[in-house]
C-alpha cells in the first residue's frame, strides 16, 4: 500500500515536474479564454470571496465559492502566472465537522498557477497552496512560472500530493490539511500562524528535521494519521533532490524492482506448488498406467504361450493375486482375483490361432493387433483407501508391425478410474532386434538392439491436471560410449540393505544416522524410508567387486537411532545382497537428442501453454559408461503463455544453455515476459556452480539492473540505471541483497 | 585525609571537631555504582594536586556477561518485565584550584539498552535455535542510548546552610565535550516464532549511530559537541546522619553534524493483492539511510543515599541509583581501622556484593554478582596526589 501511495504521489509530482519544465514567461494577454476552477479549503469555505490577480496585483476576475460545497470556477482572458486569494466576509461560512461556523474575516489563503490560454485548470486553494505561495515568494522577487512550478514541486514532494491540482478535500491531501489543523489546535495557534511558521521553516527548500518545530509537530500528526510521504518517511528531515526527475525515476525503479521481486517470488512459489502437485499426481494411486502396461504385456505373452502350447486356459499366482487367461483362436478373456476382489476383461488378438504353426512365430515378420477392454487393479498392492475404488478401466489397441529387424509399436487407448482419465491418442515406438542364439525349438531368440520412443500424444485429467499435448522425439543420436555395449548389457552390482528397529516401540523420525565404511571410504545410504516402526535403508552404489567374505574389521556399518520408548535400545538388521548381475539397456547408443513438447498443462488457475524444446548438444560424444564428471550440454527453450495464480497471463520465452568456455562450464539463462505494457528481459551468465557471473534485467522504460555475482554474493559494482543514469547500487548485506538508491532510501531485493 | 589536612591548615574554614571525625568515615568510601562525577568530592587545597579517578559498570539482565558476548548460550534468567544491558565507563583527571574550582578532563562511555521481556525472549530463542510446541507471539521493544565523549568539566561546591548541628552543601559542575560515538534509537514491533522454527515479524527501527549495531554498514565518521551539568546536595547532621543527592548529565545534549541515521521497516509478510486482483510483493526490509543533524538527549543518572554513623568505627548506609528506568537499591557498611577504611556493599537489582577500601589518598572498589558467570561487574579507583 505504501509503495502504491508513493507511486501515485510520484505520478502527480512527475506531472508537476514536466509542467515545471515549461518556459519562464511571466504574463501575456490571452487570445483564448482560460478557466480556473477548484475548491477552497481551510475548513471548507462556503460563499468565500475568490479573487484572481496577476503578479502585479491587477484583478483579473473575482467570484464566490459555492455556498454548499466550496467550489469555484472563474473565466480569465489571460495566460501566465496568476495569484488566487480566498477570503471571507459577513456572508461567508466554513463547514467544519461540527457544522457551519462563521468564517473569520482575517481568514485568507492564496494559491498560484501558471494559466495556459484556452485551458481549464484545476487550481485549488488550501493551507498547502498558501505554503507554496510563500515558498515561491521566498525564491525571488519575481514569481515566474518556473518559480511557481519549483515551489509546487518541492512542497509536493514533501507532502506526497500535488498541492495545486489535487483535491484538498479527499485522500491524503485532506489528511495533510487535518494534520495542519491538529497542529494549530495543539499549539494553541490559528491555522494562518501555523502556515506562516511552516512556510518559514521550509523557506530554504528543505525540511531539516529540527525538533520542537511546527514541522516536527506536523510530521508527528501526519504519522498519527498513518500518512506516508517523504516527510514522514524521513522523520521530517527531507531535502528534495536537485533534479526532481531523479525521484520520479527512483520510484519507477522501485516499481521495476517490485515487478522483478513479484515475478521472481511468484515464480518460485508457483514452481514449488506445482512441483509438489505434480509429484502428488505422479504418486497418485488413482491411475497406474505402468500396471496396465505390464498386465497387457503379460496377457500378450500368455496368449503366445497358450498358442504355442495349444492350451485354452492358463493360470498363475503372483503374490496374493491369481491371473487367469481363457480362450482360443484370437478371442480371450482374462481374470485377476485377490480374495473377494475380481478384475476382468476381454482380449481379441486376430491372427493368433490355437495350434497354428504361425503361433510360434508371433515375433516374426507380420502385423498383429491386440484389443484389450476390461478392468485392472490400481497397482501391485491392493488399495484400501476409503473412497477410492481399487479398479481402473482400460480400452485400447496395440499394433505391432514387424518388418525385417525392426518392429514398430502403436498404442491407442483410454484408461480411467476414480474421476481420472487419460487418453493415449498416439504412442509410437520402434524396436530393433537381432537374431540371437538358436534355442531348443529351433528358433533364434530375439535380442533387443534398441528401443526408440518417437511420439506420445496424451489428453486427460490426472489428479487435477488437464494435459493435452504431444511429446515428439525429433532426433536420436548414437552415443559413442554406449554404442560399444550393444543393446542390452550386463552390469555387476553390489549392495545391501537393512533396517533399524525398536522392539515393541518405534524409531523416532529424524533420529537415525547410518553409514557404511568400506576400504577406508564411508558411504551414505542411497535409499532410506522412515515413518513406520522401522527405519529402512539401502546401499547400492558400492564397488562391484565388493565381497562379503572379504570384509575386514575395518569395514563396518555405523548407526545411531533413538527409540520412542527410551528404555528400548535400537537394533540393526542387515540383509546382505551383493555381487549380483543386472541387465541394463545400452540401446546401441541411441539416445534422444532433441525432444519437443507442444501443448498445454492446466491446473486450477495455473496454466502453461506453448512449446518446450530440449536439445542434448553433446549426446554423441558424452562419456556415459565409465564414472565421469562430464556434464550434459543442453539447450532448453520454452515459448508460450504462462498463467500463474493471481498474475496476468504472460507471453513468456525462456532459454537455458550451458557450454564449455575455456575449460569451464558456462550457464546462460535468458527470460522475457510480456503483459499489458510491461516487458521484462533478463539474462544471466553464470559458472557451473552458479556462484559467479552476471545478471542483467531490463524493462521497456530503459531500466537496467546489472548485477555481478562473485562467490554467491552480489558484487558492490552492481548498478541500477535508467537510460544510463545511475539510480542505485546493489550490495550484499547480512546475506540479504540490498538496493541503495541515490536519494538515501533502500530496500531489500526480496 | 585530604579533608583532615585541609581543615587543620585553614582555621577560617575549620569545621567543628565532630564534623572532622564524621567526614573521615562518611565520605571516606564512595558507594556509587554508576560511574558518576560528584562536585562535592573535590575540595580546595593550597597545594597543587592531581586527582585521578576511574570507574566502570557493566551489567546484563537476561544472561551472564560471558554469555552475552558468546551468543547467549548459557543460563538464561531474564527479568519478568523490563530488561537492561548497561556499559558505563568514566575517567576523570583534574585538579582543584585554591579557589575551590575543580577543573578536569573526563572520558565517558555510556551505553544503556532497555528492552521488554518479549524482545529478550524472542532474541534468546532465535540465538539458541529453540523451538516450542506452540506458536509464540512477542511484542518487541528496544531502546538504546549510548555516547562516548571527551570533555572538560568545571565544578565547585558551596556550603549553603550551616549551624551547630547540621549543614547543607551544594555542588555543581558543567561540562563541554567532544563526542565521538553515538547510539540513539528504538526498535519496536511484533514477532511470532512458530513451532516449525519459522518466524514472522513486523518492526520499525528509528536509529542514529556512529556504528550500526543492527547490521553491517560502513558510514562516515563524524563528531558531536555536547554539554550538560552535574549537581550534588549533601545534608549532614551532628547526630551522624548524612544524606547525599547527586544528579549527573542533567540537561545533557550532544549536537551531531551529519550523524548516520537509519529508518528501517521490516515486514516479513510482504505479499498483498492489489486493486487489480494481482498479487505483489513489497520488500521485506526497506527504509532510509541518511546523514542527519541530530540532537541526542543523554539520560541523566541519579544517586541518593542516607548514611548513619553507628560509632566512631562503623557506618551504615542505604542508597538508590537510577537511570532510564533502571533502579539499583543497595546497602553498605563501612568500618574504619588503623589499616584503612573497609566497606562491604550489597545491591539488590543484580545481586552484586561489593568491597571498598580506602587508605590515605587512594580508594578502590570492586563489586560483582559472581565470578565466572557474573552478569554484573563494577569497579572504581581514585587517587589524589598533592605536589
Describe, in plain words, how this protein is organized in 3D.
The complex is a heterodimer of chains A (750) and B (387). Chain A is α+β, with helices and mostly antiparallel strands. Chain A folds into four domains: 2-240, Immunoglobulin-like; 287-462, no CATH class; 493-584, no CATH class; 600-748, no CATH class. Chain A has a 23-stranded antiparallel sheet that branches. In chain A, a hairpin with a 6-residue loop joins strand 33 and strand 34. In chain A, helix 2 (127-139) crosses helix 3 (145-159) and helix 4 packs across helix 5. The radius of gyration of chain A is 40 Å and the shape is elongated. The relative contact order of chain A is 0.06. Mean pLDDT of chain A is 85; it is low at 1-31. Chain B has 387 residues and is mainly β. Chain B has one domain: Porin, CATH 2.40.160. Helix content of chain B is 9%, strand content 59%. Chain B has four helices and 18 strands. In chain B, the strands form two sheets. Chain B has a 16-stranded antiparallel sheet that branches. The longest helix of chain B has 11 residues, at 117-127. Chain B starts with a helix and ends with a strand. Residues 1-29 of chain B have low confidence and may be disordered. The A-B interface holds A 1-4, 208-209, 211, 233-235, 237, 257-258, 261-262, 265-266, 645-648, 733-734, 736, 740, 744-750 and B 206, 215-217, 261, 263, 271-274, 277-290, 292-295. Strand 43 (745-748) of chain A pairs antiparallel with strand 11 of chain B.
